[in-house]
């Protein structure tokens, strides 16, 4: 859930901090360290946060997976967060 609370900011120092935090979060979710987050890894991350409903994780993953290749890379994650997207 942490990745969903970032707000877009134009403050350079805040942006640097956000990017650093994103790196840590991305690495934590990317359990096999292949520089891509699969829907399975994303689901496991949500389960670790106490969200047992995989459908919720799947909805968010599909919104973030803009090119629909079944994987999230760091650029895709950052693009999603900085486009002020909302999940409905
Ligand atoms: Ca991975």
Report on the structure:
Helix content is 55%, strand content 5%. The radius of gyration is 13 Å and the shape is globular. Helix 2 crosses helix 3. The chain has a domain of 53 residues. The model has no long low-confidence stretch (mean pLDDT 81). It has a two-stranded antiparallel ribbon. It contains four helices and two strands; from the N terminus they run αβααβα. By secondary structure, the protein is mainly alpha-helical. The site of calcium ion (CA) has 7 residues, from strand 1.
Task: List its traits.
4 helices, 88 residues, mainly alpha, two-stranded antiparallel ribbon, binds calcium ion, 2 strands, 5% strand
Topology:
Layout: H1 12-29, E1 37-38, H2 39-48, H3 54-64, E2 71-72, H4 74-82
Antiparallel strand pairs: 1-2
Helix pairs in contact: 2-3
Calcium ion binds at residues 30, 32, 34, 36-38, 41.
